[in-house]
Specification:
Layout: H1 3-13, E1 17-21, H2 23-27, H3 41-44, H4 49-52, H5 55-60, H6 62-72, H7 82-92, E2 96-101, H8 107-111, E3 116-118, E4 121-128, E5 134-135, H9 137-142, E6 158-162, H10 171-183, E7 186-190, E8 211-215, E9 227-230, H11 233-241
Parallel strand pairs: 1-2, 1-7, 2-3, 7-8, 8-9
Antiparallel strand pairs: 4-5, 4-6
Helix pairs in contact: 1-11, 7-11
Enzyme class: transferase
GO cellular component, one term: cytoplasm
EC number: 2.3.1.286
Length: 243
């Protein structure tokens, strides 16, 4: 039996599937991984991405933070790709119980997934740091002044609900993720290098014997998986789910 047939069989047998995904899911919607520093990067920015996307940098240099954030992390025109659609279908079938994602783009919800745990927050949610008023992504963009910094009508600075470097992951989201993974009868891991912690450590809580890794490149966890499939996460899931 080949890998794809085995994946289909496991999905058919399972009733409590959890999906854990990373940047490779979003790149198939033409959203580049902001950690991938391209050739033009150093001509545009004087600091590495990890410095710019940090809490202290956001506070001390909001103009440069938002220049990077808008150019490298916001893709409001992006659409769900086949991977998002296949996962939403699995949930609709009653098999997939949760999507746990490291991505911040909100595309799982846009595809129809209901139970999405966003480990690193979402660009779709933003709040004034002074009065706590809520702003959508569109409202954030329209509130940017000539200096590129978004401000509330109360003059407070608007902050995206995205977990920055130097910030902790939400404890409630983490504990719920652990609960879903530890009770899953099948864990599908896709589009992630499994090198960004603490998120990557969550798969250690899986106790079953159907852990599937779907990735274009090898990961440090390949030898721990019960099935490894090399390829496009969208193509593999669509074929397995039948969408």
């Amino acid at each position: 039996m080949n890998e794809q047939s085995l994946l289909k069989d496991w999905i058919n047998e399972s009733r409590n599937i959890v999906f854990f995904g990373g940047a490779g899911v979003s790149t198939e919607s033409s959203i580049p991984d902001f950690r991938g520093v391209d050739g033009l990067y150093h001509q545009e920015y004087r600091y590495p991405p990890e410095t710019i996307i940090s809490r202290s940098f956001y506070r001390s240099n909001p103009g440069e933070f938002y220049r990077f954030y808008k150019n490298k992390m916001l893709f409001p025109e992006a659409k769900p790709n086949p991977a998002h659609i296949a996962l939403a279908k699995l949930e609709e079938m009653g098999k997939l119980k949760a999507v746990i994602t490291q991505n911040i783009d909100g595309l799982h919800q846009a595809a129809g997934s209901k139970n999405v745990l966003e480990l690193h927050g979402s660009v779709r949610r933003n709040h004034c740091t002074r009065c706590m008023k809520f702003f959508t992504l569109e409202e954030l963009l329209s509130s940017m002044g000539e200096d590129g910094i978004p401000r509330c009508s109360c003059s407070g600075l608007i902050k995206p609900d995205v977990v920055l470097y130097e910030e902790s992951l939400d404890e409630d989201v983490l504990s719920r993720s652990v609960a879903y993974i530890s009770h899953a009868d099948m864990l599908i891991v896709g589009g992630t290098s499994l090198t960004v912690y603490p998120a990557a450590g969550l798969i250690d809580y899986y106790r079953g014997n159907k852990m599937v890794l779907i990735n274009k490149t090898v990961t440090p966890m390949d030898d721990k998986a019960d099935l490894v499939i090399s390829g496009s996460i969208g193509e593999v899931l669509c074929d397995a789910v039948g969408v």
